[in-house]
Design a protein that fits this description.
By secondary structure, the chain is an alpha/beta fold. Helix content is 30%, strand content 23%. The chain contains 14 helices and 25 strands. The strands form 5 sheets. The chain has an 8-stranded mixed sheet with strand order 7-6-5-3-2-1-19-20. A hairpin with a 2-residue loop joins strand 2 and strand 3. The termini are far apart.
Length: 543
Amino acid sequence: MNTDKLRIVPLGGLEDVTKNMYVYEYWKNGVIADIVIIDCGVGFLSHLESLGVDSAIPDVSYLLDKKHLIRALLITHGHEDHIGAIPYVIEKLGFPPIFAPKLAGLLIKEKLEQENITSAKIVFIKHRYDYIFGSIKARYIHMTHSIPDTTHIVIDTPSARVYHGSDFKMDLTPVNADPPDFAEIVRAGGQGIDLLLSDGLGSEREGYTLSEQIVGTTFRREMLETKGRFFMTTFASNISRIRQCVTSALEFNRKICFVGSSMKRNTAIAIEEGYLPLKKDHLIPEQDLKKMRPNAVCVILTGSQGEFGSALDKVSTGRNRFIKVQKGDRIFFSSDPIPGNEMHIQDVIENLIEQGADVIYTAIRDALHTSGHGSQGDLKLLARLVGAKNLMPIGTTIKHSKAYMNLMKKLGYQDSQLHMLHSGQPIAVTHAGISMEEKIILKEILVDGSSVGDVGDRILEERESLGKEGILVVLVSNGKVSLDSKGFMFNDRKLFGDIIPKVESMLKQTTDKQKLENRIVQEIGGFISAQHARSPLIIPVIV
């Protein structure tokens, strides 16, 4: 029996859009011979931002005893949900060489330098070229998305051939770039594709996704009509969008101010490498904005998803020292909400409006943003050109995956040819067919400042309790009891008068420090819950 196969293990990117990471294993004679990995991104957890969590990264523990078999890390493009986790895991993976399109490679290089990681090797890829990694062959195909230098990758092995079609749209008039390489897509399809992994995030939208060029027309029109300061917020990696805003700003003699650490870093790289047509005298720092006439300023900043601590969040809450919202400011959100971020964005918008800004967003104005993800027409076109035997949506939510599968049924695909996986669910691919294999258990790895993986459920529960219920400190010193609270019924004399005798009674019953601490937490916590329906974090301090 032939046991050779190509096995794909998704470590992220299948339920929550982000945290994309796919392990491709070639098995020969029942054992893994070679591994390549496609993408290594972060996940955005808007519901945990208020608890201090920055992001999530893929759980790579499955790979730790296989890192000697990892031949390369292949990158499709430079968005954070495809490259952001590299600094956190590249050492754990044994520093495999990183193959990436130029812009993505430059962004990765900057990230690694920030973390003082010098052992990683980055190779700028060539299109229409076969890279050989043992028994695995990889070929990059030029594609269009909302960031320059986006690619698809064909993975070819003796047992199976897979087309990895991550984030894309069929943009025939992209910004400062070539359209998709249709000839290469057709070439790949002509060789026979056993499985197409396709971006499916736009599977609910009819028609074709609009070209990036349409947003440039909108910027020009809106900037012409804006008498005050012009603000545009988008992702720091959305260089194509930033370029169009910059082009309009230069036309109307507006100086450009980039705000947000990631925005400044990414645009500095883009300017140096020619992705943004800017010179030094076109730019001004934040502290000089007050010196400029309002109609001579264009501010481009991060925070389009309402992220806590982002540049726009700080502006909206008055925490930016140099930028205060004023009447006449016009602020454009040039992005669609990532699922789950809607409430955060709404809060930022309302803060800005309350301070006098004219806020424009996609719900009230057309052509402020065009998705980087293909709509139904784009998705069907790729599926037709590739002509794969089997299909699998990636980079989606569960509902978008289902919509993609329903869409593909209209092209004649049967249920047996459509595969919807969850992260950690391996799939084995051969020329003869596809089969599911035993699921791998993955953990949620959270990034909290410089701490990676140290924040678990208990710490998050404590932080949530602190935020919602407050804290009560019970100090026992030389037999005397005193109390202090923060965020909880501030120094309530009656409550404190009820609690102190209870603790004094415990002191008479035990001298064991550990037992006393446990009793204070349990009994005082129970008393407060029963009397006041509150559950503050209780911290006993016994000295």
